[in-house]
Amino acid sequence: MTMHILWDIDGTLIHNSKDGAAVYLEAFTHVTGTEPQKFITNPHGQTEGQILTALLELNGHPATMLDDVLAELDARTQKLLETGYVRTAVVGGPDALRDAGGRGWTNALLTGNGPQHSRVKLTAAGYAEDDFNWTNSFFGDRSPDRHHLTSLVAPILGEQPSVIIGDTPNDGLAADSARIPFIAVATGAYSVAELRDTSALVVVEDLVAGRDDVLGTIAELAQRG
Questions:
Q1: What is the pTM of this model?
Q2: Is residue 113 within 8 Å of 11, Cβ to Cβ?
Q3: pLDDT above 90 (res 18)
Q4: If you write DSSP's letter for every residue of 84-95 in order, what string do you get?
Q5: Residue 87 contacts by C-beta under 8 Å, 6 or more apart in sequence?
Q6: Residue 17 has what pLDDT?
Q7: Mean pLDDT over residues 122-147, rounded?
Q8: What does the DSSP assignment read for 97-130?
Q9: Phi-psi region of 9 (alpha: psi -120 to 50; beta: other; left: phi over 0)
Q10: In this predicted model, what pLDDT tens digit does every residue of 175-188 receive, in sequence order?
Q11: What is the rounded distance in angstroms from the CA atom of residue 195 to the CA atom of residue 143?
Q12: Which entry of 28, 32, 105, 137 is 20 to 30 Å from 68 by CA?
């Protein structure tokens, strides 16, 4: 059976960006007609559905506006890509994907972003769409939290072995709830020490210094089947 590597995006494959938050606020403002006055204090590890629903409710708008905000977000992210939007890949990210693919493993996504936003972010950071298996990827634009997102994996992948690679404790907790092994990389908002408090099989500083440890751990999981 094929090993499926379920990569997070923000903080794992690309660096977090304060500029990246602007498009969410613009979509929110366009749909609601007012700028938000209250904000999410720690969005790391949350899904788009979770963040935007909370933002709507914090600012007195019904959660039923989520679909409209997501549609506007998709339209605005596409325009960003067409006007030279740039994000930055983490060091070692592209090489880690190539090495994993070279071993016959499937690179897929498990991300809080929606499919369109995921494509735009990854493309803007220099990744190619065909670096990933989009059919067996999982997107959180309509998931109320990351636990819901990981619960979608088993019905699709069944008994096929999988592993989640992420950069936040929330990634680890969600992996635990779905009984999926977790590997942590400290390329996001959390340190190696903080991530060692999760259930991660291995925690690495980045995908250069830690690439062998990451690939070795995945190889062990693949052998177990």
A1: 0.94
A2: no
A3: no
A4: T----BPTTHHH
A5: 14, 15, 17, 20, 121, 124, 125
A6: 86
A7: 96
A8: HHHHHHTTPEEEEEESS-HHHHHHHHHHTT--GG
A9: alpha
A10: 999 999 999 999 99
A11: 24
A12: 137
